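Running log. JK asked me to keep both predictions on one page so they can be read side by side. First protein, sequence followed by its tokens:
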Amino acid sequence: MHAFDVLGDPVRRRILELLADGEQPSGAIAAVIREEFGISQPGVSQHLRVLRETGFTTVRVAGTRRLYAVNSEPLREAGEWLERFRHIWDQPLDALATELARGKRDRRLRQEKDNARHREPPEGDPP
């Protein structure tokens, strides 16, 4: 299974998000996924198996618990592949940032102008 096939599933992405905070027991993962996605324990186990078999997670047994953790290598490889396309979205995002800054500057200048106008005494009144 290709990395993006694995990452294309919202349940598996959510599991990886949960594991980004550190190692988690399978039961805790299953509880969150059941609550958020409404899928069964066997369904969650299937997603955990896919993540484990594709190398996105590691698992270790601690007594009766199975503790899952993220294996960063496949994520790094996917990130490197995506990096080749960064120029496609960086330029439009840079342009958007410029427009947002320009809009903020224009609003600030209008506000300063309005404030200055309200501070000026009316004509004919002594200062």
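And the second, directly underneath as requested:
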Amino acid sequence: MLVVNPLNRITIHEIMEDEWFSVDLPDYLKHSAMVEDRVLTTDDIDEDVIFALSSTMGYSRDEIIEAIKIGKVPETEEILDSYELM
């Protein structure tokens, strides 16, 4: 978690699956199936978010849009997590 490079850092999904994280976890923090099932589409594209990710994280616009089109798979997880957090 303390790794500077976000591409080498543990993902939110990996943290939530960790045994340590789930001990005595309140219900409101438990991972919802609704969040996992949500799929971004090209209609969801926010150019301001794409610009921010490009500027701060170094992703190209094409990489971000391609990640949105493909959906959440291991190769796009970091980009989509970053996009959803913005």
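Observation for JK regarding the second prediction: Residues 31-85 form one domain.
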